[in-house]
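Action item from last meeting closed. Structure (260 res):
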């Protein structure tokens, strides 16, 4: 089987570096392009063990790749989706902090090419979503709180993964994000029965920790996923690229990948 040609956006970032290593370790892919906000130098290509003749502009990378992996910033999505459609390249999006307008854009883009979005690309975390649903279905009357911790550089909060955990739990319980509580400073009142509360911790170099706490009257159940490093996300994104390359146009998520 021929290798899937991938390009990596935001290659100079923290995830970009991990994506290069994951891709170089994966026999199913070839890196045909890398780019960032500023031009990539030959020294940088050399330090990443990449060939000098690969694409280093957005246009060329989207042109040559079967799939482009994006872990950058929400504002970049407008340019990337336009390029994905123009060059018929698949798009794997791991960028978090997306808003309604970005999701509408991904949905629209998926009519013309293939799009995969996951606020967390780790296999373990996506299994954790399933565990969260199972626990919530049994602990319907428990007070549910979600705590997430990340490195000091993370800009958005709560994390996309924490929100997704909340959404999985809410949908299992027939509720929705109207029950989400993010800022208790503004809310001088008792906790409402169906609240799903979110708290964020920022510091050090934490790759990502998520805990769901189910508070009963006489017991507490805590379920935690702890990422040791960012490899779980980059390995997941590269695997998702291989999977996406063989799909037809459409808007896919991790559940689709796990089903097949
Ligand atoms: N889905 C997941 O599993 C997962 C895991 C980790 C991080 N993330 C998300 O990935 C994103 C990036 O995280 P990071 O820690 O690597 O950040 P980072 O700041 O270290 O790197 C981002 C890189 O993207 C580049 N960039 C920004 N705009 C660009 C543009 N228009 N064109 C090209 N490059 C551009 C920046 O120059 C930078 O090099 C964040 O949204 C983060 O929350 C998602």
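Sequence:
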């Amino acid at each position: 089987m021929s290798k899937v040609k991938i390009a990596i956006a935001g290659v100079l970032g923290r995830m970009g570096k991990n994506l290069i290593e994951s891709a170089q370790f994966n026999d199913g892919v070839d890196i045909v392009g890398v780019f960032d906000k500023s031009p990539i130098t030959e020294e940088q290509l050399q330090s990443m063990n990449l060939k000098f003749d690969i694409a280093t502009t957005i246009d060329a990378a989207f042109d040559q790749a079967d799939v482009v992996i994006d872990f950058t910033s929400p504002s970049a999505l407008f340019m990337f989706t336009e390029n994905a459609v123009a060059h018929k390249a698949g798009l794997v999006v791991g960028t978090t902090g997306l808003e309604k307008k970005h999701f509408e854009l991904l949905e629209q883009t998926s009519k013309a090419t293939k799009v995969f979005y996951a606020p967390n690309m780790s296999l373990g975390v996506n299994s954790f979503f399933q565990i969260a649903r199972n626990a919530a279905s049994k602990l319907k009357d428990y007070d549910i709180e979600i705590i997430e911790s990340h490195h000091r550089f993370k800009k958005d909060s709560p994390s996309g993964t924490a929100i997704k955990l909340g959404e999985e739990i809410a949908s299992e319980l027939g509720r929705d994000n109207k029950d989400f509580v993010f800022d208790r400073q503004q809310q001088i009142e008792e906790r409402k029965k169906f609240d799903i509360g979110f708290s964020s911790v920022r510091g050090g170099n934490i790759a990502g920790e998520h805990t769901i706490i189910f508070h009963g009257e006489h017991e507490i159940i805590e379920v935690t996923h702890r990422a040791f490093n960012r490899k779980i996300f980059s390995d997941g994104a590269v695997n998702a690229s291989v999977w996406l390359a063989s799909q037809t146009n459409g808007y896919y998520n991790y559940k689709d990948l796990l089903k097949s």
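Note appended to the action item: Residues 9-10, 12-16, 35-37, 71-73, 76, 94-97, 118-121, 230, 233 surround nicotinamide-adenine-dinucleotide (CB under 6 Å).
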